[in-house]
Amino acid sequence: MTESKLNQRIAAIQLNSGEKLQDNLKAAYYRLKQAKQKGASCAVLPENFAWMGRDSEAAATTEQLHHGEAQNFLQQTAKDLGIWLIGGSHRIQSSSDTRGRAYNACLIYNPQGEQIARYDKIHLFDADVNDGQAYRESDNIKAGEHTTLIDTDFARIGISICYDLRFPALFQSLRRQGADVIVVPSAFTATTGKAHWKALLRARAIENQVYIVAPAQCGTHPYGRETWGHSLCIDPWGEVISELGNEPGVMSCLIDQQKIAEIRRKMPVFDHQRPAHY
Description:
With 278 residues, the protein is of the alpha/beta class. The protein has a single domain (9-268), classed as Carbon-nitrogen hydrolase (Nitrilase/N-carbamoyl-D-aminoacid amidohydrolase). Helices cover 26% and strands 27% of the residues. It contains six helices and 18 strands. It has helices at 21-37, 69-81, 168-176, 190-208, 257-266, 269-272; strands at residues 9-14, 40-44, 84-86, 90-93, 102-109, 115-120, 126-129, 133-136, 141-142, 149-151, 156-159, 181-183, 211-214, 218-220, 226-228, 232-234, 240-243, 249-254. Strands 1, 2, 3, 4, 5, 6, 9 and 18 form an eight-stranded mixed β-sheet that branches. Strands 10-11-12-13-16-17 form a six-stranded mixed β-sheet, with helices on one face. Helix 2 links the parallel strand 2 (40-44) and strand 3. The N and C termini lie far apart (47 Å).
């Protein structure tokens, strides 16, 4: 049975990115090609897909908008494979930050290889985790200030990145703006991932009656950081459609518009909200 134009596949790409840009891009292309071969018309890379290294070395991989190897890769790959490509995240220079910080930006390309949208991560991971490390993303990253959605020929897709997952109001805003699918490219730590990853993703899917597609970094990275992996696709009822383990790979899920409409019709939670009384 062929899939209709309105019911297309989105793929989640799981990677173990390191400090060698070209190796990371090669690994990403291999998985993206697999996704295309499996019938995906859209693919989502994880956070920091092109480079995961020490913060002290990050400036060397930060790119100007529309310039740089990572962006050239995204543009050319989207065009070559003829897919919608949601580029996880990569560091993009800020022209206005007085501290010299970059944005943790998700760049989105259409099947013609044109950059059509950009999302800068709004919520920055400044936290102490029980893994022997303290994380201060805001030391090197400037917070974004705007939500982003894209319109494809099969779904309206809202964009988030990693730590954004812990802020339900962002996901509610994306749903109110018409999202059918929300993507969550991530690099969750092994500690927080084991405790919270699946629970948070299922909650966001259930609360907002959307598909959640969450590609992740996995395994041990060259400088000792461990990420959780376990990329997930979840349907609007909160059911896990597919899940990876802790090795690089690719999976996909069918975005069923009829299922979205039926769930929202039978349980119209957004019509029942009473914010004036909260």
